[in-house]
Specification:
Length: 321
């Protein structure tokens, strides 16, 4: 039987529920998994998103979503509950979420890094590096580009085939947290997280690999040579005292020179985006977690036999921690 891949089938969620990482034992297992994956493949991609209340320096980070292909499991790191430990807890080999996010050698894909970088730096002193900004790449692939960048929802609607259930899950989540629809952002701080919020947190990061594969196939060498400088500048500005992550100015696209010739050398991040290897690196396989993650579950059980109680006996997610 051929394995299912989300890249081919266009699904907004895995066959397995997202896994909430809300204690130190689970976080330690997740860090061990990241170390294993990055050690096995230096081109390993991590897809990352943040949710919170007024996300930025004046707000709160509630959840960090992580997808580590080819595993179909989205990990929801409960930053609100763990606090600084979410980024500072360190394994025996020196790995923490902070070192992962700050490493230029570990490639992380965000959609619009600016507010995420602002929040991570302001609240936890995290200086992100090794960033691929999906929003910037999408803008560079357009012809004509226009004046404004697109949001993630518009990119999904415009550039992916119809996703069953995506619009419904998106709308259900927005009704809970969007003030203009009668919701409140504080819903991200309520525990336990509702099924609607869990689904909302999962689905966007699950679709980011598909978008990156689409845009990587369109990205030309000329624009690609300029993009890492744009991403680095976004990160630099997000840490300045005058940065304001709210307002219409955030929708204005970056300036790209209209050059056909000249220096087309690119960063490692952008070389990978334009590489034929990208499709493989973005593929999500429903069966991939069985072997890759079972050893991490074993480590959790050895150190704290009750740590997986929240998963439940027989829950298939237990294979994927």
């Amino acid at each position: 039987m051929r394995k299912n891949t989300l890249l081919a089938r266009g699904r907004a969620s895995s066959t397995m529920a997202p896994f909430v990482v809300d204690d130190e034992v689970k976080l330690d297992a997740l860090l061990a998994l990241i170390t294993k994956r990055v050690g096995a493949d230096q081109d390993q991609l991590m897809f990352v998103d943040l949710e919170g209340v007024n996300l930025g320096r004046s707000g709160t980070i509630a959840i960090m979503q992580l997808l580590i292909p080819p595993s179909p499991v989205v990990y929801l790191v409960d930053v609100y509950r763990l606090g600084a430990k979410a980024f500072r807890l360190t394994t025996a080999d020196g790995t923490s979420l902070q070192t992962v996010l700050e490493s230029p050698n570990t490639l992380k894909v965000f959609f619009d890094i600016r507010n995420d970088s602002d929040a991570l730096y302001a609240h936890f002193g995290v200086n992100v590096a090794g960033i691929i900004d999906l929003q910037v790449i999408e803008y560079a692939t357009r012809n004509p580009r226009g004046q404004y960048v697109n949001g993630l929802a518009k990119c999904i609607e415009k550039d992916l085939p119809p996703i069953p259930g995506w619009s419904l899950a998106k709308a259900s989540g927005r009704r809970l947290f969007a003030p203009e629809e009668g919701g409140k952002y504080e819903v991200f701080l309520e525990r336990p997280l509702s099924d609607e919020i869990l689904k909302y947190c999962e689905q966007d990061v699950m679709l980011m690999p598909q978008l990156l594969a689409v845009y990587g196939g369109k990205l030309q060498a000329g624009p690609a040579a300029q993009l890492q400088g744009i991403v680095d500048e976004r990160i630099r500005l997000s840490k300045t005292d005058t940065f304001n992550g709210k307002g219409r100015h955030m929708a204005v696209g970056p300036r790209l020179a209209k050059t056909r010739f000249g220096n087309t050398s690119t960063s490692r991040e952008l070389e990978l985006v334009r590489s034929p290897r990208l499709v493989r690196l973005c593929r999500i396989d429903d069966d991939s977690c069985i072997d890759d993650l079972s050893s991490q579950l074993g480590a959790v059980q050895v150190h704290a036999g009750e740590a997986t109680a929240s998963v439940g006996a027989g829950d298939p997610r237990a294979r994927c921690l």
